[in-house]
Amino acid sequence: MRLTIFIPSYGDGGVERMLVNLAGGLADLGVEVDFLTRSRQAPYLDRLHPHVRLIESARSGVFEIQPFMRRYLKEFRPDFVLCGKDKAGRAAVLARRWSGVPFQLVMRPGTTVSERLARRSRFKRWYAYRLIRKVYGAAAAVVGNSEGVVRDIAAIAHLPAERTHLIRNPVITPALQQYAAEALDHAWFAPGQPPVIVAVGGLRTAKGFDTLLSAFARVRAQRPCRLMILGEGRLRRPLSELAVRLGVAADFALPGFDANPYRYLARAALFVLSSRWEGSPNALTEALAIGVPVVATDCPSGPSEILRGGEVAPLVPVDDVPALAAAMARALDEPGDAQRRIDAVGEYTVQTCARRYHDLFQRLLADGARCA
Q: Could you tell me the pTM of the whole model?
């Protein structure tokens, strides 16, 4: 079985980390995995399994990458091409047509698409949906990482039930606890310092960090505490300015992107997910796996599934500053049972997820053989 994981446009987000994890899990099961991306200098690629072959395309545009893709497909002829982003899917569909190599396309939507596109104009939303239907309609299988994502993409792309599948994100790796235990030299985490609330993610609208900062200001007015958001993005300046206006700049930090946020999570008094929409939030899953107390917004999709409707940890409405502040204050006072949090994400291990992908690939191969 030969698989190409195709993500030419590579960033520092959850999709990239999950595909690196999945590549390693499938390699352990004997799958020949190529990881095809624009540059080997991108984050997380140093964590690729030694049996995964990293291939640089040096290109990422849908049309620009076609000459490279035709050569690659004709030489290596993968059984499957797995895409974690829609643009990669468009490039893969075109490459299959132009190369004549009959691989099976597997799309992996990572977020609730309808929410992500809801703020676009009617025309832009219509056009995006049209592209999605073309790409996902050409896929042998579509794998969502939460029940909400599966329902959402099935409705948008008009997919029959037999083409959609739920497989959780391969978040929990054997190295997670090792990363969490690494040393951290930061004055805020020294003994005797106020508790630190940590959030993780790109500094963008979806993450709701403006709401988190406003809620933190309410909590900070009642008790000593600090807020640290690990991530980078275009909202750095607006968030910093908001902290000044709220009077909490001295207790607010934006250290930027860190490839090992787990050492911060392991020392945090509380992790907060303040998102407006998600697919299946990896940082929330990782915080639970480390045993950190958490509070999350009940956004589409994922947090409610992970937290079992609020049984594992508090869920609050999206963009509700008073509710978020109250939940944060309660969690600082009553952190709850760490083992219950750890047990709640047992389904998100790399081994479990890789086995489910492997089973899906085997079924697709068998179905293809019967139809041949």
A: 0.87
